[in-house]
Amino acid sequence: MSSHLNQTNAQINHIFHETNAAYHDFAVKFGISDSVFAIMYVISSIGEPCLLSDIVKYSGTSKQTINSALRKMEENGLILLEDYNGRKKQLTLTEKGKSLVSHTVEKAILIENQIFDGWSKEEQETFVRLNQRYLNELKSKISELENYGG
Q1: CA separation, residue 135 to residues 55, 116, 128 (Å)
Q2: Does residue 4 fall inside a structural domain?
């Protein structure tokens, strides 16, 4: 089987993977795992208390990985995980967790804001629009694929 990755696709994939590596570097510099970074980032973005389902939805990380990270965060006194409205779970940051967020994720968000603040409004809107379009089309094409039965 041969793969025909065109030049644009190769460039986009390279940028995507390098961006993921840069966020991994954030986590490494802060001494936390990628999944803990992702959880704290989502909490910083949408606020507290935060539903577990929202963490999974907005982090792009599997439920299993999120659950493992949450257990460790709870053991380390970073979060409180509580039942909410039946079978749902919600979490809040402890003071220790809030301190960690302010020394890690908030620095990353500041850097992101500095980058986007250097772009024109039109550049920002174009970046968001094209990335959203790509994501929507990718999800659509994936849903059209037949399952591989092996």
Answers
A1: 19, 20, 11
A2: no
